[in-house]
């Protein structure tokens, strides 16, 4: 409770703690405690939030609130890689929306991808109004986020975001579309070349693939590789040369993996798509640089960045952000054809 925490010098409760204890999002806590909930949050929910805040002894950080009202007007965008053009497009979209709101964007690379990110500002966290983090676990951002700094997670599990708002792409629909496209071409023996990364975004793809193949009688094997062309080539060569019936189609978690599969096919004397259909995911520039060009799932990266920054602006201003997943698109090109 508030009294014992203050007396023992325990950590001051944050709005994230209130959100978790009340079973609501952090955006809802901001709306209720900022007295902006009417017409947006049900009265029983608002009362539960207020009661939880009192029981935890939560008190808003007024200095931080003043910063979030626009004194610094700076948002931090955290991404796991700068070598992937997807995140460059995310930054472009996010910066465009931030500029419309008079905000600047500081780009920060998490040194370990999905692992804990060190605070690039140390004690200067007060210079930030909010954090937009792509493809990272929310617990990895504790040092950067500090105490009660607005946070929006991109490409992250809504159920494990610790009360932060999330913005996601409809990845499951993308994988479903790829699978149905290949099934319609007569393929029933698949290889799933998965990204060798323990991440929610790739778990979604694997689960969607399994669901799409359920009840079809199709067989699917799995191999994994890091997100590089050469690693994918090595893994695909081994999988395609393994004993037993060779797959007629390879479904890849990423365009780099798909490009590696195409290289492996050539080394094994297989033609794409006559002997082997290959699909990617992302629709990077690489997808049209290879021959044949890749059938892949187009992810609207710039729109994704725009929606993410719009959501962060909503959280900063005490509004509920839009949580609807963004639609993706199947782009059919020359790397897929009828099963042999």
Keyword list:
about 15% strand; four-stranded parallel sheet; alpha/beta; elongated; 11 strands; five-stranded parallel sheet; about 350 residues
Structural account:
The protein has 340 residues and is an alpha/beta fold. It contains 13 helices and 11 strands. Strands 2-1-3-4-5 form a 5-stranded parallel beta sheet, with helices on one face. Helix 11 links the parallel strand 8 and strand 9 (277-279). Helix 6 (85-100) packs across helix 13 and helix 10 (229-240) crosses helix 11. The model is unreliable at 1-9 and 66-70 (pLDDT under 50).
Number of strands: 11
Q: What is the averaged pLDDT score?
A: 85
Order of helices and strands: HHHHHEHEEHEEHEHEHEHEHEHE
Order of neighbouring strands in the sheet with most strands: 2-1-3-4-5
Helix/strand/pairing class, anyone? alpha/beta
Q: Which parts are unreliable, with pLDDT below 50 for 5 consecutive residues or more?
A: 1-9, 66-70
Shape call: elongated
Largest sheet: 5 strands, parallel
Q: Which percent range describes the beta-strand content?
A: 15-25%
Query: Termini distance?
Result: 68 Å
Number of separate helices: 13
Radius of gyration: 23 Å
Q: Which percent range fits the helix content?
A: 40-55%
